[in-house]
Amino acid sequence: MPETQTKAQPTHKPSSSKRRLSKTTIAGLILLTLSIISATLPFILMVVNSGMSTRAVGAHESDVDKLSVAKANEAFAQAEEYNARLFQEGAHVLGEVSDPWSDGKNSVADEDKTYQKMLSIPADGIMATVRYPRLGINLPIRHGTSDVVLASGAGHLYGTSLPVGGTNTHSVISAHTGYDRLMFDRLSMGQGRIGDFFYITVLGHVLAYRVSSIIVIEPDDFSHFAIEAGKDQVTLLTCTPYGVNNKRMLVTGQRVKIPNPAPDPKTVPQDHPEYWLIAGVVLVWLLFMLFVFLIVTKRRKKKLPVRSLPAHHAAGVKNSAHSITSSESNGNGSPIPGLRNHHR
């Protein structure tokens, strides 16, 4: 019997066009990527800029350590004298215009040369620093509350006592909320508590304050910034509610001693809200990459064609079938009785 040759079937490979994602899918992924970037970029900027503020604080304190004790003490004493005159004579102007976030173009604080000379060493533009460990606040304090100042940290409200402490003083420190860096955001969110401690560091002196009141006022209400005789107070000022910013929140602290009742700030752990921001951003991007991976693999699986058997496989199947047929028949080609039924 002549041997039958099996013609090899062509093997079909998926074309490059079938392996590619559709234009609609690619466009959708691009739009989704841009959306993720837009959503996470503000938080990334917060982390980066907050790190810059922390480094500015560290650099300032390092420069202060390099000052001579006599020079630092002289500057500190001049600030105390300034506060004494302020208590006796009163402030003629409070703030830049009427509110730290108003639209005033000229900075009143910049025009007062006597004020600008106070706490002006080292020459880095920073007069002091404010630290609120439980809320992770650690910011440089600069002269005035102009837009430029508040864009990069906290500012001292012109017309209030300089932040050097002492009887008959009330210093007001303001900072933004909801900007591209973490400043007084957590205060605005209502996370400050009565009894919390925060610290002012100025020319090597560390002053501790315990939060005694938290109130919300109208933007044009300055009655709460007056100096109270016999008291040493610092008020942290920011805008609220978060994202609306049409009110002002005042977190006022009374001076207390270190280490009792206020713990030494060196022993107090600093909260790091930026770590949560980093974790959140990383999680969002990981989920996005997982989503893209699933979309790509699913699309490719749907487009893979069914492949024909290669020629040598087809020949092997044909030969196997021929062998089975031969084994089921006797010598003259007739089937062996009973065997067919057995295979059924």
From TrEMBL:
Q: Which UniProt keywords apply?
A: Hydrolase, Membrane, Transmembrane, Transmembrane helix
Chain positions covered by the region annotation Disordered = 1-20, 317-344
Provide the active-site residues from the annotation. H176, C239
Query: Record keywords: Chaperone included?
Result: no
InterPro entries recorded? Sortase (IPR005754), Sortase_C (IPR042002), Sortase_dom-sf (IPR023365)
Q: Which organism is it from?
A: Aeriscardovia aeriphila
Q: Membrane spanning segments where?
A: 26-48, 197-217, 275-297
In this chain, composition skew of type Polar residues spans: 1-14, 320-333
Q: Name one GO molecular function term.
A: hydrolase activity
What this protein is called in its record is Sortase
Gene3D superfamilies named in the record:
Sortase
